[in-house]
Amino acid sequence: MSESVASVDRITLDRLALRQPATIVVVRPPSDAPEWLSRLEEIGFIAGEPVMLLARGAPGGDPLVVRVGDSTFALRRAEAECVAVELIR
C-alpha cells in the first residue's frame, strides 16, 4: 500500500474505541429483528455518515451513547453490533 493511501479498519460500532471517528459502512440487522434496519436508518445510521462512540453505560457497557452526524442517541449494544463502521487512522 502506498503511503498516500490511509489504512482502513472495519469493525462493528459496539467495538469502536471511545471518541474514535468512523464512517458507517452498512447496517445489518439480525434475522429475528429485520425492523431494526428501518429504525436505525430513520435516525441517521446510513452508509457514509460520520459516527463516534461517546460513552458506555455502567455497569456492563449498555447502553452506548453514539453521535451520528449532528445527533446523539443511546443505542443498545445489540443494535450497535448491527452497524459496521470504517475507521481511518
What report would you give on this structure?
- This protein is mainly β and 89 residues long.
- The protein is built from two helices and six strands, in the order E-E-H-E-E-E-H-E.
- The chain has helices at 35-42, 77-80, and strands at residues 8-12, 22-27, 50-56, 64-68, 71-75, 83-88.
- The protein has a six-stranded antiparallel beta sheet with strand order 1-6-2-3-4-5.
- Strand 4 (64-68) and strand 5 form a beta hairpin.
- The protein is globular, with a radius of gyration of 13 Å.
- The two termini are 14 Å apart.
SSE string, helices as H and strands as E: EEHEEEHE
Overall helicity: 10-25%
Shape: globular
Mean of residue pLDDT values = 90
**Unreliable segments (pLDDT under 50, ≥5 consecutive)?**
1-5
Number of helices: 2
What would you report as the Rg, rounded to the nearest angstrom?
13 Å
Q: How would you sum up the major sheet?
A: 6 strands, antiparallel
Task: Give a count of the beta strands, DSSP E runs of length 2 or more.
Answer: 6
Sheet-strand content, in percent, reads 35-45%
Q: How far do the termini sit from each other?
A: 14 Å
Report strand order across the widest sheet. 1-6-2-3-4-5
Structural class designation: mainly beta
